[in-house]
Specification:
Helix content: 25-40%
Radius of gyration: 23 Å
Number of helices: 2
Shape: rod-shaped
Strand content: 25-35%
Order of helices and strands: EEEEEHHE
Number of strands: 6
Strand order of the largest sheet: 4-3-2-1-5-6
């Protein structure tokens, strides 16, 4: 169910939180490539093997990009609508309306991207059953 593109977050028994990508999964242990750690002295970045008995809760983040795309499109919408209505009946363009639409797009697209990225980066929590 987990692939190397997933991100796994685990709190170890000594209270250190590690985050990384799964390398190898077995019934009694999990090998992680740690990219973030709350205590570099105890658990540095790199490869670490975590026994199943040491894990109570696992948080998993799926590789997603759908939220970013939806955010970019939603951010571009208002500016595009303003620019589309900038011409009148005689096909004369209103410069101020074009500038307002461009400014709304320039602000809306990055804002939509970052809001969508925040939605994409949510972790799903799983409780590990004891033997």
């Amino acid at each position: 169910m987990l692939t190397p593109e997933h991100v796994v977050r685990i709190v170890l028994p000594d209270g250190v939180q590690v985050e990384g990508r799964p390398v190898e999964l077995k019934a009694d242990e999990m090998k992680l490539s740690v990219t973030r750690t709350s205590n570099r002295q105890l658990h540095p970045k790199g490869s670490v093997t975590v026994p199943r008995d040491a894990v109570k809760v696992v948080e998993v983040r799926k590789p997603r990009s759908k939220g970013r795309w939806i955010g970019v499109l939603a951010g571009a919408g208002p500016g595009s609508a303003i620019m589309a209505t900038s011409s009148n009946v005689n096909n004369e363009f209103n410069v101020y309306s074009l500038l307002a639409g461009a400014a709304a797009t320039a602000v809306g697209v990055p804002a939509g991207f970052f809001i969508g990225r925040a939605v994409d980066r949510r972790f799903q929590k799983f409780v590990v059953a004891s033997k």
